[in-house]
Design a protein that fits this description.
Blueprint: H1 6-13, H2 20-69, H3 73-97, H4 106-143, H5 159-162, H6 166-177, H7 179-198, H8 207-211, H9 214-240, E1 247-255, E2 265-275, E3 278-286, H10 287-294, H11 304-310, H12 326-343, E4 354-358, H13 361-370, E5 373-375, E6 378-380, H14 385-399, H15 409-423, H16 430-442, E7 446-450, H17 453-461, E8 474-482, E9 492-503, E10 506-517, E11 528-537, E12 541-546, E13 565-569, E14 572-581, E15 586-594, H18 597-602, E16 606-612, E17 621-627, E18 634-636, E19 648-654, E20 659-664
Parallel strand pairs: 1-4, 8-16, 9-17
Antiparallel strand pairs: 1-2, 2-3, 4-7, 5-6, 8-11, 9-10, 10-15, 11-14, 12-15, 13-14, 16-20, 17-19, 18-20
Helix pairs in contact: 2-3, 2-4, 3-4, 4-6, 4-7, 6-9, 7-9, 10-12, 13-15, 13-16
Length: 665
């Protein structure tokens, strides 16, 4: 029988307690190592797959951007779908590694990688909407037979759209009418993507990738801005182009070399009916052909400055844009047009859906795109188009043996040729055309008054309707009216300066207007005769003025000082005066007035100023010097740094557009 050492067995079964903690630690480490292996393998694989899918998504996104820039919408759309697929997969794998974001060192890199993927996905989503719209429009053109289905771009010109059958053209307009909503979503997604990209840390393992994004960020910002601009126009174009119902418009061609309150002298009018982007009828007429026939049958009395300085006792259509508020002027224009039509037995029942006013700036800018145009031996260039039109309708027609009634036919031919060439432009040139009209709207070389409440609200919100703003802050608008000075505004240089100072009774403002006549006496220019009004806050009180004249040098050789007319209109107060400037001469009009108490009180903590430009004017220099008698602590736009820390807010800018200023204390 085998002997068993019971004590030895006991010692083997119950080891020395001193070794138990070590074994426990080893067991825990072993479990952790096993867990790490079990977790690390799939997490590592997920991280690898995330990076791989993200790279593929990025490559597809860049390829789509290139295709979209080349207007190859089909390839762009396909590449974007690939980008979305890869980026969505990368996002799913990112969810697996997301818990590791709490770890030190690597956590920030994981978070940055997920942000990068998410922002790229937002970018792809935004581009899909835009490219999808382009592909839909392209499909309409292909189905109509206008384009070869194998052609990747609209190379034949935008005139292809106008060759479409009416049904397909309406379908295209219906697609375009949906653009604003799609673009709004796309702009929002691009803004989110930009915010994500800009939040990426610069000190992670992704630093090189983040820095490499800069060209893409610039493209995204440009795309966002262009989408916003295109969205504005695409919301407006279907309604203006007679979709879904036809529209009747009155067109005013204003000559800003003979400046009037809404942009220029109304020399030519047009009536156009548009249905599904097709002009069904177009009639252009010389304003004198209407005014001359109506003559003494008119009963409307003109404003006193027109009566005095133009020697007229009737308010004619050519002078109807006396109000600087375009919606107000439009009402007077249409009223007088109906009165003149009725007085000569013409049908005055025409109802307009809107009124469009343009000046020669648009023709000049479009000629830069389509090239010079030659008509009847006359060549029109961007530089001479205004002068050449003026010469042909004033003198050239007579040399060609044309009757007065046909003197503006050349204008109609020029408009038709420029329009035709614009339509024939390849698709990649149309953004430049859109930019011309967008700039014209914002710089008030084109005004839109619509009687459609929806369109009216749209153009009003964008300041495209030429309306005068009314509000509680300080305000200034300088309005010139060329009265019997030919086209002398073409040689006048203007400057506007505005200053305010603190007085015992409140804020005192001074508006100084400087005019220099750089012309001479010829068929086009002469002495400058202007009736000038400045519009200021309601309740302002005139303290003093200088420079006003009773009449010009010929009619008043003594140059008797003129009076200042004070009128409350359009929710503002205006101070008006006549001024005449001989060729080579420089003259000033100065108005000093006390601002209303409400503005002085508001300026105790904050001061705001809006300076509106007169439609039709160019970038008139504007200088501000605003002394509040206390330290300025903030301002928009900001001053130059060396001017900080005093009581004066100063700016040197121009009135290319309306300007707003804000000062805090």
């Amino acid at each position: 029988m085998t002997n068993i050492d019971i004590d030895a067995l006991h010692e083997t079964s119950h080891p020395d307690p001193r070794f138990r903690p070590v074994k426990t630690i080893l067991a825990v480490i072993g479990c952790l190592l096993l867990s790490f292996v079990v977790i690390a393998i799939p997490v590592g694989a997920s991280f690898y797959r995330m990076a791989s899918e993200a790279k593929s998504g990025r490559d597809a996104l860049l390829a789509a951007s290139t295709a979209a820039e080349n207007a190859d919408y089909k390839k762009a759309f396909s590449d974007l779908r690939d980008a979305q697929s890869h980026l969505a997969a990368a996002n799913r794998f990112g969810l697996v590694v997301a818990p590791l974001s709490v770890l030190p060192y690597v956590g920030s890199d994981i978070q940055a990688a997920r942000t990068l993927i998410h922002s790229s996905l937002k970018t792809a989503d935004a581009l899909v909407r835009v490219v999808g719209l382009g592909e839909e429009l392209l499909g309409i053109l292909e189905r109509s037979g206008v384009l070869d289905a194998a052609a990747p771009t609209i190379g034949g010109g935008v005139d292809a759209f106008f060759r479409l059958p009416v049904a397909d053209r309406r379908a295209a307009l219906d697609t375009l009418s949906r653009v604003p909503k799609d673009f709004e979503v796309s702009v929002s997604e691009i803004n989110q993507a930009l915010a994500g990209f800009e939040s990426l840390p610069q000190d992670t393992m992704l630093a090189s990738a983040v820095s490499g994004l800069q060209p893409m960020l610039v493209k995204l910002q440009n795309l966002r801005d262009r989408l916003a601009s295109a969205s504005e126009l695409s919301e407006l174009l279907p309604a203006l182009s007679g979709y879904p119902t036809s529209k009747n418009y009155l067109l005013l061609m204003q000559n800003n070399t003979e400046l009037r309150p809404t942009g220029g002298f109304i020399g030519t009018l047009g009536e156009v009916t548009i249905a599904a982007a097709e002009a069904k009828s177009l009639r252009v007429v010389d304003v004198y052909a209407i005014d001359g026939v109506a003559g003494e049958k008119l009963t409307t009395v003109p404003p006193s400055p027109l009566a005095k300085y133009l020697s007229v006792n009737k308010w004619y259509l050519r002078d109807a844009n006396w109000s600087p508020d375009f919606p107000t002027a439009v009402k007077k224009i249409t009223d007088i047009l109906r009165e003149e039509s009725k007085s000569v037995g013409r049908d005055e029942s025409t109802e307009y859906d809107g009124v469009l006013a343009i000046d020669p700036m648009i023709a000049s800018e479009l000629l830069k795109i389509v090239g010079n145009v030659t008509i009847g031996g006359s060549t029109f260039t961007p530089e001479n188009v205004t002068d050449e039109i003026e010469f042909q309708v004033e003198k050239g027609f007579d040399a060609k043996g044309l009757p007065v009634a046909q003197r503006k036919d050349i204008l109609i031919e020029l408009m038709g040729e420029v329009f035709k060439r614009c339509l024939a432009l390849p698709s990649d040139r149309w953004p430049a055309v859109i930019d011309v009209f967008t700039r014209a709207l914002y710089e008030k070389h084109m005004l839109i008054a619509s009687f459609d409440p929806i369109v009216a609200k749209f153009v009003r919100a964008r300041n495209w309707d030429g309306s005068m703003h009314v509000g509680g802050d300080d305000y200034l608008m300088v309005v010139d009216a060329n009265l019997a000075a030919l086209k002398t505004d073409s040689v006048i240089t203007r400057k506007v300066s505005y200053s305010i100072n603190q007085s015992p009774t409140g804020l005192v403002a001074t508006a100084r207007l400087v005019y220099k006549n750089n012309g001479g006496f010829n068929w086009k220019t002469t002495r400058y005769r202007t009736y000038t009004r400045i519009f200021v806050p309601l309740g302002s009180k005139l303290i003093s003025s200088s420079g006003a004249m009773e009449n010009d040098k010929v009619l008043d050789p003594k140059r008797t000082p003129g009076r200042i007319d004070t009128v409350d209109e359009l929710g503002r107060r205006s101070f008006g005066a006549f001024l005449s400037v001989e060729p080579g001469e420089t003259r000033e009009l100065v108005f000093t007035y006390e601002l209303p108490e409400s503005i002085s009180k508001a300026a105790a903590g904050h001061y705001g100023l809006l300076v509106q430009k007169q439609p039709g004017t160019e970038a008139v220099p504007l200088t501000l010097s605003l002394d509040f008698g206390k330290k300025v602590t903030s301002a928009t736009p900001v001053e130059e740094r060396n001017k900080w820390g005093d009581n004066i807010y100063s700016q040197i800018t121009d009135l290319r557009t309306d300007r707003e200023f804000s000062v805090g204390f």
